[in-house]
Amino acid sequence: MTPEDPSRDPLERLLKKTMRDDLPPDVEARLRSRLALFRQDVSRSRPPSWRTGWTTRGLLRASAAMACAALLIIALQSLFDNGSAPTWAQVNAGFAAAPFVNATIYIKNGVLDEPLQLELWMSKGGRLRMRAGNQILFGRNGEIAESFTLPGTTPPRAGVDEARRMVQEFVAGLGASGAFSFETLVKALPGKTPQTPPLPNQDASVARDLAVFDMVGDSQGDWVRIWALRESRLPVRVLFWDPGRAGSVDVLLSYFNEQPAEFFDPAAFRKTIEGMADPASQAYSLLKDPGGRPWSPQDNKRPSAAPGI
Amino acid sequence: MKESVGVRTLQDAYAEYDRLIAPIEDKMIKAIWRVTRNGEDAEEALRIALATIWRRWNRIAGHANPEALVIRICLNASHDVLRGKSRRRRHEASIHANDRAFLESQPAAGPAPDEAAVLREQESAVLHAISRLSHNQAAAVLMRLVQGRSYGDIAQALGCKDATVRKHIERGRERLRRMLEPFVASCRGEAVL
Predict the structure, then answer these.
(1) What pLDDT does residue B1 have?
(2) Does the ipTM surpass 0.90?
(3) What is the predicted pLDDT for the residue at B74?
(4) Domain for residue A274, yes or no?
(5) How many domains does chain A have?
(6) What is the mean pLDDT of residues B80-100?
């Protein structure tokens, strides 16, 4: 028997016993988020070794020709190839890696009902801000830190209680996990979330660059459909559909760069809205559009920084 | 100075990532966790490893065994973290905290307090001993003894000959055996029993 035989070598047994594979799920989630973020970074810019020192006109022409050829090949490939669809875990990791998420949620209780609109903004570290009707809520570490009623406004006729319950569940879920979680968002949506795991539904989209997942409910036939981008693996839409009453919850997701810290600070919010008269400026105070466009009436009075305006 | 850029599309970048890194994400995470055994340190090690992977992307893409090379980068990064700032105290504190949390969460199934203290001490000693090895010794020992990789794999990852790998393992093993003598002896006892 050699000293390296795993069954006999005490040092090897000691190392294996100590360096065991007992990765806690929260650490694994954080590491996977970092990898998902790295995948995005790889696409944004090139490592130094991808830069070349070409300066001559001939080489520039050659590189342009190669670019055209590569684009042609990619275009042809995309005609015949659907690409690999992301898994549900990858969609979750993509969502968790986003620095700032904006979710616009429309809740409709029946086909002829007016939808109630909610707006949710989330950032790293479990920070959250939401507008539900005429209320602005701030959440952090699993609790609603503060809520404001926009002065001089009246609440919508229905749905605010449901929205508030949703916010509470979502804030608590975020606090418990300590990170963005797309599953927490889906579970917190009003309605009975189906218990089945999300499964890919390839027939549900003809768009090559979208992946679709379905969660199917109980005998009532409720279902949830999730659309995610194939390349970036970011979910962009969630639809909860109740065919029994044609009720729906429709969530549109968009992703920004990080907002200033005061956007999630109730004290800064209170101070900012003090001099404001109109509810729109109050509701969106401190929100910076990533493209530099004016967002609220207050912003509209200032010259825009966006290109092309 | 003028600079033009090579041809590379977004789709290429994703495809390269999916070819090189995505299939071994699990192995990278496990390799880092086994050495760091602490959430913060694992994140730091992964950050360092990804920065290295970023810098050496072309080398990895053209390597004969990219998986082994990436795992070696992860192990080196974990090793760097282990050797880093106030490693001894920091590890002991975090390992204590980890064990406390584990014991509190699983009071019935967890080890007895004495056993937990022994495991803690053993873990701390092993990590400290690993941190004292050279980069190549640590990577070779961990890839061989913990991950069970072949000498050929390790040689490709370290960029040396099989014989050099064997030498790294032999020396690393000898140093570990000396530093961990009491714990190795207790494991020897277990084998006899």
Answers:
(1) 36
(2) no
(3) 92
(4) yes
(5) 1
(6) 60
Report d(CA A47, CA B61) in Å as an integer.
Answer: 12
Domain spans of chain B, in order of start = 8-84
Nearest-by-Cβ selection for B126 from A18, A26, A27: A18
- Tell whether A209 lies on the interface with B, counting CB pairs under 8 A: no
Disruptive mutation site among A12, A22, A40, A124 for chain B (greatest number of B CBs within 10 Å):
A12
* H-helix segments, B39-161: 39-55, 57-61, 66-83, 87-105, 113-132, 135-141, 151-158
| Position A307 in a domain | no
d(CA A234, CA A255): 9
Minimal Cβ distance to A38: which of B5, B50, B185: B50
pLDDT, residue B101, reads: 55
Pick from B19, B34, B52, B79 the residue to mutate for testing the A interface (most A CBs within 10 Å): B34
CA atoms lying within 13 Å on the CB side of residue A224: 24
What pLDDT shows up at residue B2? 36
The answer to whether residue A216 sits within a structural domain is yes
**Can you give the residue range of the structural domain that contains A253?**
88-287
Q: Distances in Å between the alpha carbon of A120 and those of A25, A102, A111, A133, A149?
A: 27, 6, 24, 12, 16
Q: How confident is the model at residue B72 (pLDDT cuts 50, 70, 90)?
A: very high
A216: domain CATH number is: 2.50.20
Low-confidence ranges of chain A (pLDDT < 70): 1-8, 42-64, 66-84, 156-160, 162, 170, 173-180, 190-195, 217-220, 302-309
Task: Report d(CA A180, CA A28) in Å as an integer.
Answer: 14
Give B-chain residues touching A12 at CB under 8 angstroms. Answer: 145
Whether B37 has its CB under 8 Å from any CB of chain A: the answer is: yes
Q: What is the mean pLDDT of residues B145-171?
A: 91
Looking at the partner chain, which of A13, A51, A70 has a beta carbon nearest the beta carbon of B3?
A: A51
Residues of B within 8 A of A25 (CB-CB) are none
Which chain A residue shows the shortest CA-CA distance from B178? A11
Interface residue A80 vs chain B (CB under 8 A): no
